[in-house]
Amino acid sequence: MEQQSFLKDRLIPIGTVVVAIIALWYVAxxxxxxxxxxxxxxRNGTTITFSELLPKTMAQERPVLPAPHQVIAELxxxxxxxxxxxxxxxxxHAWVTLSATLLGFAMGxxxxxxxxxxxxxxxxxxxxxxxxxxxxxxxPILAIAPMIIVVLNAVGLSGLLPKALISTYLSFFPVVxxxxxxxxxxxxxQLDLMHTYNxxxxxxxxxLRWPASMPYLFTSLKVAVAISLVGAIVGELPTGAVAGLGAxxxxxxxxxxxxxxxxxxxxxxxxxxxxxxxVGIAHSAVLRRMGARA
Length: 294
Fold this sequence. Notes:
79% of the residues lie in helices and 0% in strands. It is mainly α. It holds the Pfam family BPD_transp_1.
């Protein structure tokens, strides 16, 4: 019964959507890559039939839109066939980006939690700081990232830290918003009960507000860790970095290697998905530790 439910509720719907996306992808690849083949045939003074055109659109060296099998082949070549220490390995580039992501995520989480605690417990910070926190996210990261990189390079800071700071800038916001909501989630009757116990503010925080905020915290962390990866990739673009997924995307853009670009994008998506899964596992473990029902 459980197996039938899994097939009906998850495997079949997800599989259907994936097959539909792949089919549309192939159609789009054929449509977008066909003009190049027609132009090539016209320059050679020949005509090309549909049966000749279709295979060529799926095997171009620099296609407008690579076909799925081209992206899969590139991923296999740069993850399995290449040693992880090679500069052409996507695993190597992913680790370079991941190191900045994790550092920025850690700093953003700590900063977000501290700001949320201050906002919840201090009315002046609530009225003055919270609008600035929200306004900070209206500045496009593509505009502010080069300024951060240039300023930090001017004072002698380069490498991992500037990229991590960009990730921090992006990742602290969902943590602040989620933790403010979580720390304020206890109902008034629960706060009144703590007052009847003559609980101090610190006891109310650790025994009521903090446990109540855990679901909100981990939900925010799932968003924060994914956007932290985006920040690390964006941070690699204006530096002319030679390593990292951002550098891989930049090199592919310079030389028109669209297959390389798409492979790097899929690798970034896989890394983000893995990070979100890890946060989800930690979420379940913490809730079980706190006595939540499975």
